[in-house]
């Protein structure tokens, strides 16, 4: 612990790569919330669409963490 | 857990958890294939089967508690996943598979926060991979059976109503996304959600333990307590993520089946 930092640069790359999906997931749920606020009865229909969009955007972050550990 | 504590204590500095914490020796002999994740998966399969059997045995009009629980789960998968994603015409035939899939993945995931078990079996890539390959075979088979081999791929790669130069770009992308990317993202999403969640929990628990025991002092005790408390909060968050991922995997499987069975407009 002499002020040195050990680790892989992959993790910094993963941190940068997670920004995009983070913003994307934020936008998806912002749209979902404002949709439900405008029309509360559409909640059930919007929910599965929102979760689908969330899952697709999240896949990018997940591929990122997978590659961060897999690539040497 | 004792293996992990030993790993964190052996060096003089803090050894952060990594992919090595996901590899277990065999239970009976170090080299055998029968490891902790395999045991969890076998128990999960038996648990799902036995609980559904007990819930359905002696079904009556006025349900018992067990029957009510089983029917709630089954009804949730039927109404919120199968009928929504596949449609009322074809949805009912896939409910048994989807309900089994959902409960099996949920039990495998939830093993990650059950005390003393504490390992999500689905963070080993083989188990989600098999489930994704089953979904892949089902939707390709259904699509080819319903539309015929040529028409299925033609509808997929050359949707109508688009100017023809776009097809040069669109056709390979559509083929690549349907046949290769879909099963891959299904697998990776479940695996690495569980992997990352388990890693974060390990980091908080082992980091807290290191700060409290080895680092010591006022800083160590305050930071270690915060870390241990954070691990408790994160455990509940992980429980939520684990159920959500089981739902997402089942929903996507249902959507792919629904897409294969849909009539072209």
Give the topology.
The complex is a heterodimer of chains A (72) and B (265).
Chain A (H helix, E strand, L loop, with lengths): L8 H9 L1 H20 L4 H28 L2
Chain B lengths: L1 H9 L25 H21 L8 H21 L9 H16 L15 H22 L1 H9 L7 H51 L1 H45 L4
Helix pairs in contact in B: 2-3, 2-4, 3-4, 4-8, 5-6, 5-7, 5-8, 7-8
Describe the protein in words.
The complex is a heterodimer of chains A (72) and B (265). Chain A is mostly helical. In chain A, 79% of the residues lie in helices and 0% in strands. In chain A, helix 1 (9-17) runs antiparallel to helix 3 (43-70) and helix 2 (19-38) packs antiparallel against helix 3. Chain A is elongated. The mean pLDDT of chain A is 86. Chain B has 265 residues and is mostly helical. Chain B has one domain (2-261). Chain B is built from eight helices and no strands. Classes of the chains: A mainly alpha (72), B mainly alpha (265). The interface between A and B is medium-sized, with 13 and 21 residues.
Sum this structure up briefly.
The complex is a heterodimer of chains A (72) and B (265). Chain A is an all-alpha fold and 72 residues long.
| Total helical elements of chain A | 3
Most extensive interface, chain pair and sizes: A-B, 13 and 21 residues
What spatial form of chain A do the alpha-carbon principal axes imply? elongated
Q: What is the N-to-C order of secondary-structure elements of chain B (H for helix, E for strand)?
A: HHHHHHHH
- The total beta strand count of chain B reads 0
Order of helices and strands of chain A: HHH
Sheet/helix structural class of chain B: mainly alpha
- Assembly state here? heterodimer
The whole-number mean of residue pLDDT values of chain A reads 86
User: For the report, how would you describe the main beta sheet of chain A?
Assistant: none
Distance between the termini of chain B: 56 Å
Can you tell me the overall shape of chain B?
globular
| Alpha-beta classification of chain A | mainly alpha
Q: Please state the average pLDDT score of chain B.
A: 88
| Largest sheet report of chain B | none
The poorly predicted ranges of chain B are: 1-10
Task: Compute the CA-based radius of gyration of chain A.
Answer: 17 Å
Please report the total strand number of chain A as a whole number: 0
Low-confidence stretches of chain A: none
